Amino acid sequence: MKPKIREWLRRYLPAEVLSVVATLAGAGLAWHLAPEQDLRAALAGTWAGNVAYFGWLLGQDVRLARRELQAQGRRYTSRTFGRNVRALAVEFGPAEVLDSFLIRPALMYWLPRWMGSRAGGILAAKFLADITFYIPAIISYELSKKRLRNFGE
To answer: Transmembrane stretches, by residue range (predicted)?
Structure first.
């Protein structure tokens, strides 16, 4: 089990670090521009974090696919890129729909109010939402590895 945990940490931890920074920056900027718009800040934080998170993962997947194909003397094509995008959609699709449209924005809206701290509430919301996000995401990742992430075919 330890090798799996290391694999998941290598895959997800850098994206999470970028996502935390982007989440706080997105929510903070929204509050700066419209201080009384908590819903706007919750959505801005959610989507800024998503762009950073998935941008990093897609970049990593593209880099790994290019390296694997180059070692075989093959080119990375737009079809390969589509396969990378499809693999991410399979890995995160169900988890992401619930996370981005319901769980995370709701937590980011309510926890800052309940805690009396905007930054503390946003961070707490992010980490609580991550729990409901990673369980189905990791299961989907493991199920999709052989079929969608193997470029040796």
So the answer is: 12-33, 39-59
With contact defined as beta carbons under 8 Å apart, do 31 and 37 qualify? Answer: yes
- Cα separation, 119 vs 111, whole angstroms: 10
53: nearest Cα among 108, 128, 146, 130: 130
Any idea where the domains of the chain sit in the sequence?
2-148
Quick one: pLDDT band at residue 153, thresholds 50, 70, 90? low
DSSP state at residue 152: -
Instruction: List, as own/partner pairs, every contact residues 89-92 make where C-beta atoms lie below 8 angstroms and the sequence separation is at least 24, other chains included.
Output: 90/140, 90/144, 90/148, 91/137, 91/140, 91/141, 91/144, 92/54, 92/137, 92/140
Q: Please give the structure tokens belonging to residue 111.
A: 């926890």
More confidently predicted of 142 and 22: 22
**Inter-residue contact 47 to 17 (CB < 8 Å):** no
Q: What is the pLDDT of residues 6-65, one digit of tens each?
A: 999 999 999 999 999 999 899 999 989 988 888 888 889 888 999 999 999 999 999 999
Question: In the chain, helix, strand, coil percent, each to 5?
Answer: 90, 0, 10
